[in-house]
Write a structure and sequence with these properties.
The structure is a single chain. By secondary structure, the chain is mainly beta. The protein has two helices and 32 strands. The longest helix has 27 residues. The protein is elongated, with a radius of gyration of 27 Å.
Length: about 375
Amino acid sequence: MGRTYLWVALVVATIFLVASVLHLNHSATAKPSVKVSDGPIVYVYRSGSHYYAIDLLSNKVICVDSPTACIQEAIDYAQSHAQSVAGYAADYRTPPGGEVLIGPGVYVVNETIQLPSGFALVGSGMRNTVITQGGPFPIMQWRDPTRTNQDFVIRDLTFYGAYATSKPMIDLSQVETGSHGLIEDVYINCNPGGNVCLDISGDDDIALIGVITSLNTDWDNPSVRAMVPGGNINIIASKLFGGGVFMGENINFLGDVFGPYQQVNLFTVPNHPAIYNFEGCYFNDATRIYVWLGRGTVPVMFIDMEGTVMYTANPVFVNPSQASITIYLTLGNTYMHSSQPASMFDNGIRGFITYNGAVDLVNISVNVTG
């Protein structure tokens, strides 16, 4: 019996000793003298025919109904808090923005949403949160289109173009490079008679992941305009579908889907060769690649199409201007098929091909320079 009590006493003493050591170590850990705010959780939601924006942490009502379905008010509120916390520190090129969460439902905006740099819009799912136009005007654009190096995040929602517009429906273009942006799990559907669906031209470091765009059919108004002088855009596992147009400079396409009958436009760029990586991509019926001379450019393109399946037409690479352009094409584990006899390169193109694996070209002749 005595031994039992002794054993229990030893266990209790050991537990107490360990707890004391942990307490001392915890007490010795440096703590901020001022509690850092957790920040607001800004949430926009729809109830019946009404729109609301609230701060979930403080239960503050930010907005009840507005021309922008309370999205503008939520963005401004989140940005105001972000600036009060971060200020205008030296490492910020522009004032910071904030994050806004948007609940399920259809949000009709009757006024263009003005975006600050650093904003983040996060919906409740690509098919669950829908932002649509209430009239013939863009859904979103920069508040200050002349400001440079503006960053953004857009995720998990749909933009629906109910009306044709004279400007891009989603205008995130900038006057110079240096920005960073992410568009992920987003569906963008434009009115076919309108302008560009998504304009990200001038943006420097952008990733489009799982993005679906419904294409327009006018060459002057492509679904996506991604023209980056000296920058880079990654488009990952997205889908650009319907007969229409895509325009891009310096793009990495990873697992993307194009067509059918789509015109994919690639441009040469200033100061260095343009680089395009189509890796693991799928081109639907009769989709062709058009190559163009850009402004003040080096007329050279490096195009990698490894692991790609392409159903195309004659010629595969179209040179509408017949200007002199040199293409260095890499194929490997690549399948290309034309329903009619086709050549790889149009007139005016000096083509060079490197083979890095099995290549199957059906009804396509390889008219290379060397």
